[in-house]
Amino acid sequence: MGKRGAILENILRKGKDSILFLGDNSGRPVFLPRPSLFEFAEKKGIRVLPGSDSLPFLSESQRVGCFGLSIHGTISREHPARDLKRMLLDPKTRFQAYGNLENPYRFFRNQLTAQIVKWRYKQEWM
């Protein structure tokens, strides 16, 4: 487990009745197992919400909204955020996840691109 995972595990272990959700995203490659902290959180009643988190690359611009969830319920025009929050916090609310995790080609291409961008940025500022 990396540094961020250790921080998250600490928060989950100490967490009381706080309003907390974990987020999954489509950038996680299909060949890796689901993070163990997701199962740990779900056992504590913390929901894992899927959503797209596209990288800032032109090739990723069409991926916004490709991974997420749909909820069946009523959202008012007057208080949409309040209504959505109520539904997400209600353990009886069921949602339907949609979308696919990243295939190996896209995953490695994006990781390589991210490292090249990072390297170029460092070169400009050195």
Shape annotation: globular
Mean pLDDT across every amino acid position: 89
Largest sheet: 2 strands, parallel
Tally the helices.
Answer: 4
> Widest sheet: strand order?
1-2
How does the helix and strand content classify structurally? alpha+beta
Give me the Rg, rounded.
18 Å
Number of domains: 1
Percent strand? 5-15%
Our measurement of the CA-to-CA distance between the termini, rounded to an integer number of angstroms, reads 31 Å
| Helical content band | 40-55%
Unreliable stretches: none
Number of strands: 4
H/E topology pattern:
HEHEEHEH
Protein architecture, described:
- The protein is α+β, with helices and mostly antiparallel strands and 126 residues long.
- It has one domain (3-125).
- 41% of the residues lie in helices and 14% in strands.
- The protein has 4 helices and 4 strands, in the order H-E-H-E-E-H-E-H.
- The strands form 2 sheets. Strands 1-2 form a two-stranded parallel sheet.
- Helix 2 (36-43) links the parallel strand 1 and strand 2 (47-51).
- The longest helix has 22 residues, at 104-125.
- The model has no long low-confidence stretch (mean pLDDT 89).
In short:
The protein is α+β, with helices and mostly antiparallel strands. The protein is built from 4 helices and 4 strands.
Write the layout of secondary structure elements.
Elements: H1 3-14, E1 21-25, H2 36-43, E2 47-51, E3 68-71, H3 80-89, E4 95-98, H4 104-125
Parallel strand pairs: 1-2
Antiparallel strand pairs: 3-4
